[in-house]
Amino acid sequence: MNEPLLSVQDLQVNLHDGRALVRGLDFELRAGETLALIGESGSGKSMTALALMGLLPEAARASGRLALAGEDLLGLDEAALCKLRGRRIALVPQEPLSALNPLQRVLQQVMLPLRLHGMSDGAEARARALLARVGLPESRWQAWPHELSGGQRQRVLIAQALACGPALLIADEPSSALDQDSQQQVLDLLAELGREQGLALLLISHDLGLVARRADRLLVMYGGRIVEQGPAAALLAAPAHPYTQALLAARPGLATRGQVLPAIPGSVPAAGQWPQGCPFAGRCAQVDQHCADELPPRRPLADGRSADCWRLDA
Ligand SMILES: Nc1ncnc2c1ncn2[C@@H]1O[C@H](COP(=O)(O)OP(=O)(O)O)[C@@H](O)[C@H]1O
Ligand SMILES: [Mg+2]
Question: Would the CB of 15 count as within 6 Å of ligand 1?
Fold first, then answer.
């Protein structure tokens, strides 16, 4: 097996006041592999993405070990991070409109990362090829961002993220602002590009139904922790953690028109308000006293899966 491109060990993200947003994440991602990071809003998905990019907000700090092709990312200074960002790791952000410069035409914006990284030679030809590849009609290449639809803006951001040929692409809720059809198209495009270019792709979403079939492996996150992980097909066929089971039952992709979705009762606790035991204890239908008191250990399951749940012993 080839070495993982990205290796994350015991990643913690803490606010300066001590509140924990991400609490001990471990995962690996290989070139050519698509990993989906899934969980409800407030689980710590974006904080994980920002930690990988070295773009955490002022109030937060990452610790643990993040290695890209063996290089320790958390040890890098801002100058070194700038060289890496957009070049070896790129992010397709959650907010397509605010991520684009309203005063610059589309083609110029796709060329920008190439200029920033001293790759100006042939930049325009490369930007044109990328815009064609992501499916933006040529008549739109000189448009301003406000003249594009949401789906088109998302395509521009994908072209921009790919400009310098990154090895790792992180897409944080890449289509959450779009309608269902455009969402599917954007995700299909990302999955195709990932395969085509041998990218390590980290797809982040709150919607398990939307991303699961496009991923090789799934990481289910709740309360700043991975509660279950494994190959996508095996995990979907037999989810082990009550949280994964609840997410699957609530996934909008399965609902037919007019059907009421069985939402997961309760809400995600605010940062730093996790129970001392299993993060899901407060909402879990199968909870017992043990769950609230003590953090469940990671249980290895068949097919390279694992889940952190006391009930697996029952
Ligand atoms: N700038 C910030 N300062 C303090 N807390 C934050 C900040 N941004 C997000 N949080 C908190 O961190 C937790 C995780 O947020 P986030 O990573 O954005 O979750 P997700 O992307 O899974 O929805 C949430 O409780 C959120 O309120
Ligand atoms: Mg988020």
Answer: yes
